[in-house]
Amino acid sequence: xxLGERSGHKESRYCGVETEFYDDxxxxxxYNISSGGFDFAVAPLMDPAYRPSLxxxxxxxxxxxxxxxxxxxxxxxxxxxxxxxxxxxxxxxxSEDEILRMDSETTLKQEVxxxxxxxLQACLLPAPKGTSCANYARCVNQILLGVNNMQLWLRIPxxxxxxxxxxxxxxxxxxxxxxxxxxxxxxxxxxxxSIALDVLSSLPSANSLGRWFGESVRAAIIDTDSxxxxxxxxxxxxxxxxxxxxxxxxxxxxxVISGKPVHGLPKGSADLAANNNDSNFDxxxxxxVKDCVGISCEGFEEENKALFxxxxxxxxxxxxxxxxxxxxxxxxxxxxRSYLDYVGYLYQRMDPLPxxxxxxxxxxxxxxxxxxPLMDNLEAQTYETFEKDAVxxxxxxxxxxxxxxxxxxxxxxxxITTVLMVVGAGRGPLVRASLQAAEETGRKLKIYAVxxxxxxxxxxxxxxxxxxxxxxxxxxxxxxxxxxAPEKADILVSELLGSFGDNELSPExxxxxxxxLKDDGISIPSSYTSFIQPITASKLYNDVKSxxxxxxxxxxxxxxxxxxxxxxPSQPVFTFTHPNRSTNKSNQRYMKLQFDIPSETxxxxxxxxxGYFDAKLYKDIHLGIEPTTATPNMxxxxxxxxxxxxxxxxxxxxxxxxxxxxxxxxxxxxxxxxITSPSPSSIQNSNGRSYWxxx
Amino acid sequence: xxLGERSGHKESRYCGVETEFYDDxxxxxxYNISSGGFDFAVAPLMDPAYRPSLxxxxxxxxxxxxxxxxxxxxxxxxxxxxxxxxxxxxxxxxSEDEILRMDSETTLKQEVxxxxxxxLQACLLPAPKGTSCANYARCVNQILLGVNNMQLWLRIPxxxxxxxxxxxxxxxxxxxxxxxxxxxxxxxxxxxxSIALDVLSSLPSANSLGRWFGESVRAAIIDTDSxxxxxxxxxxxxxxxxxxxxxxxxxxxxxVISGKPVHGLPKGSADLAANNNDSNFDxxxxxxVKDCVGISCEGFEEENKALFxxxxxxxxxxxxxxxxxxxxxxxxxxxxRSYLDYVGYLYQRMDPLPxxxxxxxxxxxxxxxxxxPLMDNLEAQTYETFEKDAVxxxxxxxxxxxxxxxxxxxxxxxxITTVLMVVGAGRGPLVRASLQAAEETGRKLKIYAVxxxxxxxxxxxxxxxxxxxxxxxxxxxxxxxxxxAPEKADILVSELLGSFGDNELSPExxxxxxxxLKDDGISIPSSYTSFIQPITASKLYNDVKSxxxxxxxxxxxxxxxxxxxxxxPSQPVFTFTHPNRSTNKSNQRYMKLQFDIPSETxxxxxxxxxGYFDAKLYKDIHLGIEPTTATPNMxxxxxxxxxxxxxxxxxxxxxxxxxxxxxxxxxxxxxxxxITSPSPSSIQNSNGRSYWxxx
Lengths: 695, 695
Fold this sequence. Notes:
Strand order of the largest sheet of chain A: 1-2-3-4-5-6-7-10
Largest sheet of chain A: 8 strands, parallel, barrel
Largest interface: A-B, 38 and 38 residues
Shape of chain A: elongated
Low-confidence stretches of chain A: 165-172, 267-276, 292-313, 318-330
Number of strands of chain A: 26
Structural class of chain A: alpha/beta
Oligomer: homodimer
Distance between the termini of chain A: 55 Å
Strand content of chain A: 15-25%
């Protein structure tokens, strides 16, 4: 039973429970799932007393391994949807004790093979015991190369000591992310190796936590010790924990409750940790029970005027369940039920996703090739989508208004006709915005709508006719770079920007159009700047890597970034200004940037760079997607992603030095990029061999 | 004219000269080569006053670039064999000055294109100006992707400051190897990017210098300032410089003399730096001149009883040359001639290569797949080669002698017959060694010669017949692992070792044969250990990389290591002892090793690991190829090389942690390896997917 659907969400979230070994799996599931309310159980598959080395020496034996049950005790779909295999936690493949090491390897391989035989969706691997994990990783890597679709969740405690004064020579674990990082690098970033985070009672800093949202975290195991107790004796979480769990929900991370119940309910007077925030939780539980009761048993509420404690309410629920299903008679409430209820409450309490986010859900972390609107003609569907971005055109309209007012004083509004050229008019949205600006400001306008795509020109003609703009708008079917204009323009309006600003060749196009702009003419936009920031993005990295070639690693992608960690504030890269009156007209650019990752973050993995732009349309009117200044509710652009062929780990105290080039050839424009610190990478996309934009 | 052939060398070494810009290339060559005696000239191709940005602004111009001459002034073979193109040394692609940067890029590309047009073999790129070289590398990388077979020699000053107290915040260059390393990493280890080392008057430590012998150094440019002056006023080099130049000769590095003549010769009384070592040089010069004169002009010697100084002698030579070629009349001795003569002297003075080394010249740095003698049957030619290794069989004979004497006291020599089994007898060399040992010690022997290769058994039979060994030797055509022996052996003799000891499955074979060894029986060898050490090996790395697949990076190769730098002493990896009476019979192994590279070495690149073995045949008689204990004059084994998919840079103070596994499956044995420090690599050859030895 999922935690419930939130309004507007297509996806549900699930909550599992970690159990002890119990060799009657059907009963274990009945207790935890059918009766207990959890969605799945993380259950040991093998008797924890088993040791291969002891087996061999014992009686010849039947050769039957001490697994819990046989594959027949559950249906295949029950196995795969309700059971996550928990690998024996005693295994220690990096022990000094060779026998233990060999036993561990044998057991690990037997258990995973069994889980694979059962078609489980995942196995939970115990956390590495020390700071060294090479032999464990070697064995897991061997398994990963042979396993079916099963995921291996490596359990990692959510630990990071921020104490810099700590003795670094001591072998104690300082940052569990480092452990994970070693493990996954040894396993060559295998896409079926993911993480189950053990959430403990104290949490690392926000920056440090943030790193995990760029990693493939599949489950968060919350120990009952991490819960506080609210005034009514219910388990609840600290605000920081709540925020973290909410983020997990946002990132499709499944929750698993683990440990013994440590909240002795009911406890009317208990006030171990009064947590104002959760006073609502009690009411919520009450309401839930009322809802439940209201449906299944009329009149129940009357009998219970007094305020329910959660435990009481749930007891009634269990009672009702046992009434309605005689087979469940005598089933007691699951001891971890109140933890599950609290997690469900946190989930349902979340704010619904805004409409735009909901629309973009399907695009999250999905790599798209950037458009090449200069080389290729856009399709009607593409125009359709982008024309709906009202916010964008409102910004344009505001910019055009200001430009018109600056260009023509109020007193001369009726005398002067401003020549405005929309270069790259598409199906006309900027023509409309210009006309609306003229109307708003009372300025007279003559518009040329220049468009190179003959298919869009068809639509433009019918639009002009339909709207009765024939006297004002002249349609020109031509590439702006080669058009022989009959007169010069006061204002040049264009929307040629890509996610990285200049990546759809706005500079080259506007340099061409500049010929027919008056010496004191205005370009809207008047300038634009690209930005980058280093990110952890293991999902994107693996998607790029899956193509097994260099070309995909040297391509920039348009992507709705979600499962990423942004490691440092973005920095500007290339700026272009229009009109460009400088003597050096080159649109080649070279920029060296240095990023300093906050030291409290700890070491981090850089899989590549997120790219953005910000455009100054006119004076203070801007438009952009750079996160700190992004125009709200605009959906025309996702970010761009520049991958690194070899992801790089940046340790605290060392900085990341990045080089970006914009290179121009006779027929194409391309970017090259590399890093030189902490250690040099190769230069990516040399000569634009993999990715380029055609002129 | 090469520096001369040394006895026994097939290759010659060449010496070039660096020149100034001179636009009459034929005359430049006549002066430096035909007359001056150098083999080639490193000559600027373009007028150093040229700047593209000035050209454009100047008169419209003819569009002719200011190159030295046209392609027609020399024949194609003259261009390619006598001229190395020297790229304008003013270029600075990482300057803060954008105009200079753009001019530099344009010029560099024009010059390389011209050199390419002329089919030059190499161009000399000026050293990067500062510590930052990303833009220079980006531009060179673009060139490398498009260039023909031409090599680009990046000039690197041979500099390393050992002063640890130096302010690391200052931007001064501390270790020029780091600069090279950044540059080549940015250029993705391109095989046509190589090094021209600028040898200066002071040299870094031996360890630091050693790194360069694992890199692709093509030329050493020796500045005249680096020379000392001997008692007679000749230029000479310090002993450390001499040693370095000799090493360059050994590694096929060409020498280039550069700079102004600073040794004012002749200088009979000069004794700036009396250099005992080179008292021979004067005599050598005299002899050379005598030889030369003796051939070309009888009676010349009579006229010149006095001791020649080099300059005088050479003057005569020049005179003779001008006599024999009237066109050369008036040609003067080249001002750098005495430096060239000294370099020639150093070359010819070198010890001739030992015969074995000469035989192995063709194998240097050539990757071979290891034999699989268990899975495949060896060919006659292979037996033929290995049987010639007298030293190896002498060691075996010594070991067998000792074992026989220990087994049978002198007094019982005639009474007791020792049963000796040669397992893997091949064509019989160990049978012969055993019989010789029996004869030497007066012990009685019964020999079983067990061999699985039926083709070798044919030879064995004819050998036994030929030698009349029928009464002593029983030939068994069987795999030792499955042979049902009629009696048990006192001594088991085998030669199943590969370059890495156990890599030809000696452990598995001997474990099988152990069944028919008496409880107190002896195995020769009684144990063996493999060793590894980290090496720089850019040539091997590039050869592996050229296959463009993972398989080749996960394969171990047999190779005669030459162009490598050994970065730390080797360490033992796996040991096997025979007979193996332990209860744990597993031949799986796991070893974690930590290498500390001497801090005075500086940062170094680890391309992989050299592997060796040492075997204890019996008691103190050993056999092996581990460099510090290697058995002299044995040629049966080259080293083994384990590559790293991603070479790793180790900085001073951080250590290299390496993991090696020997894994055993039902049908194969394989190694996996990885590093975990300074940063984790992936685990190579997981599951033996790329490289394995068949059982």
